[in-house]
């Protein structure tokens, strides 16, 4: 298909030929809804619902506290960690599901700083997700004299490498940029950092479940990420943390809760960390949140990240082509990389009225999101988004722009969550 030669019919044909099309049946999306925000909160699946009900009715209700053993709840952080690990190129025993992304980042930054005594600099990027910068700042505050060194927003790999030296303790970057979707070359950056003795923490919030990642092969030291974005684990899903095998037993979790203890049920008076990845667990796992995530992970195990990323690239290419062909004169400026292999599974355009545009689209049941100051962001989840979703979303966008619907006052008032 040549660029811009698409019609709604050709998109329907692409759906017919799509080997992943059947997965959409698993997701309960309302009729007419075009959900392009799975990068912020993944959709609910029948599998997740069934798993929640099973956990409540067959485990919690009849077995109560016995379920920690009988249903294996106590092992869910490591069991789910390994299942997530399989999606991010981590061999078993290095990943746990626990807490949330911000908390796991705190654990990783503090652990890494402690391994780097004498080094006083943390490098990150100005366009990293704010929580990552705040958490890193907060961790730096605990280590006197530690300072942040930030890359400018449009930095390239060479700029990252140029900013590193032997004063740098930790480099922390988000693999797929939350605004632009641009992907860092994980292996190249990690290798360059290691050559200078710098430890690297990768945030996989917008990567896990969408983009090929190979932590072991890249030699990553630590990684963290979200369970509720592309992994579809549901609101409040556990996040995850990866600690490379070579660091286990050395890297220390600063949140020394009882379940990270070498033998929690010895109820010893003082803390001895487990020698395994379990030392990065803090307290009791959120079992109902794990239950929802269980259903979601079952779905991933019926396909592959490679197949998902292939479709993701086709969906995002189609979206870019259609928006540029049909809305190009309306001030939509692509800020995501044009080359599909350089980006994650969302596409962002800047537009002067991006906030109101997104509100007007949401009123039409086309759900994307706005990121300050002027970014309209659209996530494409290959498990449940179709080619015709892309066509229809762009059709709505064309109409919103042509009718200047974004001018309406109700689309110009900001809510608490954007
Ligand atoms: C979504 C996101 C987070 C969210 O952190 P929570 O602790 O789950 O609220 C953190 N970092 C990045 C890069 C994100 O995209």
Write a structural description:
This protein has 418 residues and is an alpha/beta fold. Helices cover 36% and strands 13% of the residues. It is built from 13 helices and 13 strands. It has helices at residues 8-16, 46-63, 67-70, 76-85, 101-114, 130-141, 157-163, 186-195, 215-218, 287-300, 305-327, 354-363, 387-402; strands spanning 34-35, 95-98, 121-125, 147-151, 168-174, 199-203, 222-225, 239-243, 333-334, 346-350, 366-367, 369-371, 375-379. It has a seven-stranded mixed sheet with strand order 2-8-7-6-5-3-4, with helices on both faces. Helix 1 packs antiparallel against helix 13 (387-402) and helix 5 packs parallel to helix 6. The longest helix is centred in the C-terminal third of the chain and has 23 residues, at 305-327. The chain is globular. The relative contact order is 0.16. It binds pyridoxal-5'-phosphate. Pyridoxal-5'-phosphate is lined by residues 100-102, 129, 131-132, 174, 178, 203, 205-206, 226, 239.
What attributes does this structure have?
418 residues; single chain; 13 strands; 36% helix; alpha/beta; 13 helices; binds pyridoxal-5'-phosphate; globular; seven-stranded mixed beta sheet
First-residue to last-residue Cα separation: 36 Å
What is the strand content?
A: 5-15%
Task: Look at the structure and give the mean pLDDT.
Answer: 96
From N to C, what is the helix and strand string? HEHHHEHEHEHEHEHEEHHEEHEEEH
Quaternary form: single chain
Bound molecules: pyridoxal-5'-phosphate
């Amino acid at each position: 298909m040549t660029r811009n030669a698409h019609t709604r019919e050709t998109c329907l044909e692409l759906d017919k030929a799509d080997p992943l099309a059947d997965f959409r049946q698993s997701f309960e999306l309302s009729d007419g809804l075009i959900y392009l925000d799975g990068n912020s909160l993944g959709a609910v699946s029948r599998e997740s619902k069934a798993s929640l009900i099973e956990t409540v009715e067959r485990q919690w209700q009849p077995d109560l506290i016995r379920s920690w053993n009988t249903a294996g709840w106590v092992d869910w952080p490591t069991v789910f960690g390994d299942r997530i690990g399989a999606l991010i190129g981590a061999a078993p025993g290095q990943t746990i599901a626990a807490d949330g992304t911000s908390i796991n980042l705190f654990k990783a930054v503090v652990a890494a700083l402690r391994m780097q005594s004498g080094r006083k600099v943390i490098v990150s990027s100005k366009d990293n997700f704010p929580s990552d910068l705040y958490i890193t700042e907060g961790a730096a505050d605990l280590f006197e004299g530690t300072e942040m060194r930030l890359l400018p927003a449009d930095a390239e790999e060479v700029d990252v490498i140029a900013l590193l030296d032997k004063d740098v303790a930790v480099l922390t970057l988000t693999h797929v940029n939350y605004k632009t979707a641009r992907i860092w070359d994980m292996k190249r950056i990690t290798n360059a950092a290691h050559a200078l003795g710098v430890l690297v923490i990768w945030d996989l919030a917008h990567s896990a479940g969408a983009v090929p990642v190979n932590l072991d092969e890249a030699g990553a030291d630590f990684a963290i990420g979200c369970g509720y974005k592309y992994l579809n684990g549901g609101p409040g899903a556990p996040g995850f943390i990866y600690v490379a095998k070579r660091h286990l037993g050395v890297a220390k979790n600063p949140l020394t809760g009882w379940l990270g203890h070498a033998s929690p049920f010895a109820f010893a008076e003082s803390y001895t960390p487990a020698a395994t990845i379990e030392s990065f667990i803090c307290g009791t796992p959120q079992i109902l949140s794990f239950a929802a995530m269980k259903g979601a992970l079952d779905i991933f195990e019926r396909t592959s990240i490679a197949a998902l990323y292939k479709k993701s690239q086709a969906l995002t290419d189609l979206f870019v082509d259609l928006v540029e062909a049909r809305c190009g004169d309306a001030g939509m400026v692509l800020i995501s990389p044009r080359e599909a292999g350089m980006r994650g599974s969302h596409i962002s355009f800047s537009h002067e009225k991006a906030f109101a545009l997104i509100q007007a689209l949401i009123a039409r049941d086309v759900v994307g999101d706005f990121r300050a100051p002027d970014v309209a962001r659209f996530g494409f989840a290959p498990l449940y988004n179709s080619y015709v979703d892309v066509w229809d979303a762009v059709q709505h966008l064309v109409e919103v722009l042509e009718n200047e619907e974004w001018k309406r006052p109700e689309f110009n008032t900001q809510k608490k969550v954007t």
